[in-house]
């Protein structure tokens, strides 16, 4: 399904694995985007796979920064 959606967009935000996705899905999605000329953006999240990033979490600014750097770097 992702491949079909990519035929109709110019950019895609790719889940970076903490609230959805995993390294294999990230890699496959980025490859599909490159093949179709779709720009890639990171969709980082909180370390909350079970809650899909929707649960309240106490995170200080330093932790939030580290989470974002880690996930964007992985993408």
Automatic annotation (TrEMBL):
Alphabetical list of SUPFAM superfamilies matching this protein: Glycoside hydrolase/deacetylase
A Pfam family the protein falls into: LamB_YcsF
Species of the source: human gut metagenome
A biological process from GO: carbohydrate metabolic process
Full protein name: LamB/YcsF family protein
InterPro entries documented for this protein: Glyco_hydro/deAcase_b/a-brl, LamB/YcsF/PxpA-like
